Amino acid sequence: MIDTKLLEILACPACRGDVEYNTKDEKIVCTECGRRYPVKDGIPVMLVDEAEVPEAGASKE
After folding, report:
1. What digits encode the pLDDT tens for the residues 28-45?
2. What is the pTM of this model?
3. What CATH code is carried by the domain that includes residue 15?
């Protein structure tokens, strides 16, 4: 689980968009570009190189 205060200050390092926590997949998801950042041992890994990039035409959720 990610602290809500932490989520409020996090931003996507690729586009500076807002992010949300996907509890099912345990990923931080950018609401703008759709990149999905892993959470390892409760720590968000907010590195562009570690992000999953959405496929063209894919849903951001």
Report:
1. 999 999 999 999 998 999
2. 0.85
3. 2.20.25.10
